[in-house]
Amino acid sequence: MMLTLKLVGLAFEVNSTHNSQKKRDTSEKNQEEKDEANRIEPTCVDIIHYAFNYVGVLTGPYYRYRTFVDYLNFPFFEYADWKKATIDKLKYVPLFAVLFLWGSYNWPLSYAMSDEFYEKSWLYRYWYIWPNFFIFRMRIYVGLVLSECVCTMAGFGAYPTFTNPKPGQGPSENFHEMKKLLSNEDALKKTEYDFETIHNINPYGADFCTTYREAMKHWNICIQYWLAVNVYKRFPSKKYRTAVTMLVSSFWHGVYSGYYVCIGTAPLCLLLEDVYYKLYLKDRKGPYFKILEWVHWFFRMHFFSYQGIAFLLLEVNLILKYYNSIYHAGLVLWVILYVVGFQLLKNKRRKEKKLAEEAAKNE
Asked: Taking the alpha carbons of 228, 232, 238, 239 in that order, is the dihedral positive or negative?
């Protein structure tokens, strides 16, 4: 899976280098510095070394070829405080591991495939999506944080903080200053570094942010970067780019039906969320704003959990058996919420338009 991301991403990096050289004469100075910092010309041997570099070879995080080259050629890893970065990332891993074991013991996924499970009440079967998604999150948090620690312990992905590194991307600004830094050892020692380039998961943000759209940005962050740069931004139709990006993400995960049911229905959740965000959260005001945020969070986690059970069950017969047993309650809820929300939003806009017209008349 990681090899797919690396090689496809590398192809686009080479393409970007080629395109930047073609328009070099008309580029602004800042853009030229950025293009120079991102320019790559890999040989066949370089590609093999990048593809099979032990850092991130199995579990990620995804990083660009440019990041790999910088690690080999720049001395930043020698000066970055990798011990502190690693400890900061590891401090919650024991908690995640204990919660994962506790959840797995009490609510194993295998029980949802047993005949006894389907003899339980409808409410219990419906509720079971919550502990299973919780267990899944704890497992992913442990795995992704440990994969980040492999990078930090090797000093991989360290860049000066003043370059404002982005997950998956690396430095995003001050490329000229970074280049000047290389020839000044005293400045190298005094400079602050971070490992944001390989930052792949934000457990707190994923669990407690309000919106579905924001939660996606806290999850598999480096993969989100790859999807955004290589699929979303490059797809010619703005209307369908979100759906196509989710389809590519599903295909990357594998061929099981559960991946397509889970990830492929994300655009529907975003569509529903946009309605209620415009209704209650966009203005960020009102006496009940905080309460509405928590209500929004509850439904966001509910739909994540409802989709997540398909991701875990994987096979279409198991997915249909489960969803049929709860009468597709999540889908029914989505339809009800969307119809009600759409009508409320329509009424709100009509009211706002009327007030604007009255205000214009009074003037």
From this structure: negative
pLDDT at 20: 73
Token pair 């005094």 is found at 190
Closest-CA residue to 282 (of 221, 352, 360, 335): 352
* Position 10 pLDDT exceeds 60: yes
Digit-coded pLDDT (tens) for 200-241: 999 999 999 999 999 999 999 999 999 999 999 999 988 889
pLDDT at position 24? 61
End-to-end CA distance of the chain: 63
Quick one: pLDDT at residue 58? 85
C-beta separation of 222 from 60 below 8 A: yes
Stretch (H or E) spanning 35: helix 29-38
Catalytically annotated residues: 220, 253
Is the per-residue pLDDT at 36 higher than 70?
no
Q: Which amino acid is at 166?
A: K
Q: What is the pLDDT of residue 148?
A: 95
**Token couple for 206:** 């994923």
- Residue pLDDT, tens place only, 279-309: 888 887 777 888 999 999 999 999 999 999 9
Asked if 212 contacts 192 with a C-beta cutoff of 8 angstroms, the reply is no
Cα 24 to Cα 39, 159, 178, 229, 334: the distances in Å are: 12, 26, 21, 21, 50
Q: Which residues contact 168 (CB under 8 A, 6 or more apart)?
A: 61, 62, 63, 64, 197, 221, 222, 223, 224, 225, 226, 229
Helix (H) or strand (E) holding 345, with range, is helix 329-362
The answer to whether 294 and 303 are in contact (CB under 8 A) is no
The position carrying tokens 């910092």 is: 37
Please check whether residue 290 is in contact with residue 201, taking contact to mean a CB–CB distance below 8 angstroms: no
